[in-house]
Hints:
Beta Polymerase, domain 2, 2 domains, DUF4111 domain-containing protein, transferase activity, transferase
Amino acid sequence: xxxxxxxxxxxxxxxxxxxxxxxxxxxxxxxxxxxxxxxxxxxxxxxxxxxxxxxxxxxxxxxxxxxxxxxxxxxxxxxxxxxxxxxxxxxxxxxxxxxxxxxxxxxxxxxxxxxxxxxxxxxxxxxxxxxxxxxxxxxxxxxxxxxxxxxxxxxxxxxxxxxxxxxxxxxxxxxxxxxxxxxxxxxxxxxxxxxxxxxxxxxxxxxxxxxxxxxxxxxxxxxxxxxxxxxxxxxxxxxxxxxxxxxxxxxxxxx
Length: 255
């Protein structure tokens, strides 16, 4: 499934435990995100979707909350790097289901919330086109193709506010956030151009070849520094933050 045996074990156990809790409403467990795109590494979280016939409620919801409160306490790296949602098949199938909150496990947290975080066109595209089956029926039987213009419109809408949107949940005093912002802009531009979704690393590589050469040093810096990982005490490289803001502003109205 993934390059990491330990992660495969975490995913297999999650599928088994979710099936036990959900009973007849369980459909299947799938990987999307960076691992589905072939770019997952030790700096990635693991994005999952567990499909259900109906949204969890009552005893099933309570059981899932108890499960995800306990998973990060288990030994190992990947038990603390899981992020995903429990999606009912009706709202998962097409983009008409966007706006429906799914029971969501945020990265590394223990309390599930109802959120639309995973209910997006790009998550559906990854799932449909690159998703990994952990357990359950083929993904194509659950998720329809995402219309190209829906993907493009999502990224066109995101670009003008990308910096403010990131600032709402991450501090730009940390180098990781600066690198994340550069890759987020490149991923948006890639989707607008191709109507497909690429990993952060893949989008940065594409941007090196396709964007204005003036941005190559910034993009190369974001690529090279990825292996530094998350360090809350590491500030951005001198000048990189202002250049990142300029980069985002310069492409903010791309059509």
